[in-house]
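Sample A.
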Amino acid sequence: MRDGHAYLNRSAQHLADKMIEQAGRLGINHSRGHLGEHVIDAGASCPGGVEAGLRIVEICMGGLGVVSATLDTGKWPYSVNVRSSQPVLACLASQYAGWNLSHEKYFAMGSGPARSLARVEPLFDEISYREPEAKSSVIVLETTTPPPAAIVEKVSKATGFAPENLTFIYAPTQSLTGAVQIVGRVLEVAMHKAHDLKFPLGDIVDGAGRAPIPAPHPDFLKAMGRTNDAIIYGGTVQLFVRGTSEAARTLAEQLPSHTSRDHGQPFADIFKKFKGDFYAIDPHLFSPAEVIVTAIETGDTFRSGGIHEAMLKQSLD
């Protein structure tokens, strides 16, 4: 795993400042919270849009990802494309939504480079990244409301920054911004599953992914189902890894979503079947439909899985 000059928080702050400067054209709102924190509403009480979603994906990846939207051919041609030459830091140290931020009735999972400063998740026992020169930080929340003061204080204490040096970005799942930033996690879910499969993180040297952008839906369950299905049944990821061809082959075979016992149903139906308990769902479901793994030291490439058009039609149309 590399870091070099990978300043996750500094890079993300620069991108967040750009969003604030361009708030009008991005269709977002910037304000100051009760404790002086910066708050960016990217789709709750404002229109937001695809560009705002793409910017948030870049922020979530700590500036270590290249993110774009493309219009290709096919039934679901509008897609988010992400790539990173430091995927462990971009996806696991920053983008992964692994920080539980709850207070009374408020609940959100925190994503973004502030996680790398707080280091409250077990994952950081395996990621040694440190950023001593950081002076501010950004956290992204998939929710409909800004964080209450108690959450701001929690993040402030964990990161060591005063609230005025923190930026909170939020967008609901039901918004177009939210849909884009969620499917922009297609590479991240592959990285997280590779970690769960005990593949050596340091052997993953590069990665790219794409997934279709689903239409937003005002119903939370349907919106959540569509964004998950876009990755589970429509996502493609390629990883470049060090090591043997056999290790690359095994990773390719185990990584796609079809290896999960819960594969084959729309995510909304799965969620309802388990009565809304995320932890009852097979975690191996959260992975791309199609995986390509290239062993860079042998030149061999292995493919597994495939786009599930019937399931996409059932969910996205």
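Sample B, a different protein:
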Amino acid sequence: MTIRETIEEREINILSPLAAKARLSWGREKPELPETIRTCFMIDRDRIVHSKSFRRLKDKTQVFIAPPGDHYRSRLTHTLEVSQIARTIGAGLNLNIDLIEAIALAHDVGHTPFAHSGEIILNELLPGGFRHSQNSIRVLTRIEKHRDENGLNLSREVLDGVLHHSGYGTNKPQAATLEGQVIHLSDKIAYVQHDIDDSIRAGLLKIEDIP
């Protein structure tokens, strides 16, 4: 039995019955032979971490277009905070941490520069509007490259979680996996907390202003 097979067997025996299992993955657009060490979700996570779009998150601001210091959040630090929160929740619910981490690390790779203002302007200018979650899928499946081919060829569970992370509603169905739904909640927890923290740091809010 390979290391990967041992990990997959452990997932079947230990994780929640409702958790995603690597052995039962929905697969990729282009089938790949399994590795001997990493599960499919581990491979996805590693491809995302080593991608150019992930590295570019460090220079994209989170709230302020031109923050006056080095201690304000960027898209990269936000992504890492979402990943930490989601992994903690996932551990408590006995979900698949590798899938959670892959979705968390990829969820904002399609975000614009200039904080949310960039997305708002593009949404006004582009026919059909602009959604960063949809652009993240475009980045992951078309713009990034893996072995000289377009797209990272990620598992369908990861792409589903990225696409549906930003909100639910009539036109925004929830992620198909619990791991993807955890990312949606963790994203909200992270940005509510750190947007307040950065606003206090910038002098736009005071602790007393918070209800």
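Observation for Sample B: The two ends are 56 Å apart (CA to CA).
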